[in-house]
Amino acid sequence: MSRRPLFPRPTSRPLGAASARDTSSSPGPSASRRPRPAGPLPLALLAAAVLTGLTGCSSAGASAGGSVEVVVGYQSKTINTVTAGTLLRARGYFEQQLAAEGKKNGRTYKVSWQDYDSGAPITAQMLADKTDIGSMGDYPLLINGSRAQEAGGAGTRMISVTGYNELGALNSVVVPNGSPAHTLADLKGKKVSTSVGSAADGTLVQALRKAGVQDTEISKQNQQPAIGASALKAGGVDALAQFVAWPGQVVFGGDARLLYDGAALARPTLHGVVVRQKYATEHPEVIEAFLRAQADATRYLNEQPLAASQEVAAATGLAPEVVHLYNGPNGIATFGLPLRPELLAALREDVPFLKSVGVLKALDVDAFVDPSYLAKAALPEIAPARITGTDAVCGQPVTDPAKAGEIWFDGEDATRPAATPACLLKAVKAAAGKKVRAAYVPDATTGTRWFADKDHWAQDGADLLPFTTEDGLKAYLAAHPGAKQIGYEQALAAS
């Protein structure tokens, strides 16, 4: 089978199998499927290796002598897939589930983890029968299903969701702090870095069209996220349109400001898990074990969000404050496995757009999405992480997620809840001299959680209101003549 890349290749780095940064496995991967790990196993995988033994295995995930291999492709820095990737791997949940399965059926299971920067190479490996389970964003998922259906055979199936945002805030556009751009329309004729074919690219194209700018009126640079972030810092591009967690990372690092919040499109965006159907049919117990492990990781993330954020940060090198922005309680990403009707409806609505830009020919979404694996796994419902407790400064319970914020002070092992943006500002002011690692507040219109000191603020009577973008602030001011724009320091003083 051809192993051509699914999208145009970035000039900075090819999107082929060789782009896997970090390949390691439980013992004995088949040389015909993948290279051996370059370094020592993480402790969780080493423990799993002891449990599962040192038995060899045949290629393409087939079992031989009671040995079954499974290859998982994931994106460590795409942190709303962590429950099927980074966090799942770090905590060893999949290996634990497979070890328990092996005790029942006498088989030995070995897991090989392959880390990529985007979903395209995972799909290429799946089409070449070299990766069995993968996690990626909605557009790459749809292209995965389309290419697999086009190739014929058993194809691939989407079996669960990882993280999602009902308004699309997982994708956004950032510009350097000194950029003259204040709206998307200001990017006309400018260089914009994105990963062509990704959900972030789709958000960029649709948002530009909404702003009256055609995709051809910008100079699009097809780059991997890390390359684009570096280019933005170096002045090589005028804007970066990317998916979680890259916009938050460059903004938190002081290198950029948010120009466009994907929530303005009001179109759900999601990430999910896809499997090779042939492998899943041959080894349904592996897929069910994966879903149980994903549920374990999802439960841990939602019940221990700060600890989970710190673990993901340690594994990826991302700032923990940025990981927590997205994955924390009331975060930009909500984590849950169910294939919710509104998310599937969004996938169906995305197909015509992907066809219009030439990255997808056709896709039978109903044939691609398969809820039967989740049904067989019979997993209990997992409540998403929410900010709760009592606001100590304002002396009131935290109950409204549209207003609730969270403060992470340096040297503290837990974050503090804030009932409203004004209460959060009061808490920051009251703790004068204490370093704030991060203070998170929801946008007054979209609800997008962002850094309080990076927001645009308005004062409307007694209300202090944060907005993620200048566009959002101006729209509010236009609709509320009595309101006025203020800076963050002014907002602190007024709280």
From TrEMBL:
Gene3D superfamilies: Periplasmic binding protein-like II (3.40.190.10). It comes from the Bacteria. Residues 170-307 form the SsuA/THI5-like domain. Coiled coil: none annotated. Residues 1-39 are annotated as: Disordered. Residues 23-32 have a biased composition (Low complexity). InterPro entries: SsuA/THI5. SUPFAM superfamilies: Periplasmic binding protein-like II. This is Nitrate ABC transporter, periplasmic protein. It comes from Kitasatospora indigofera.
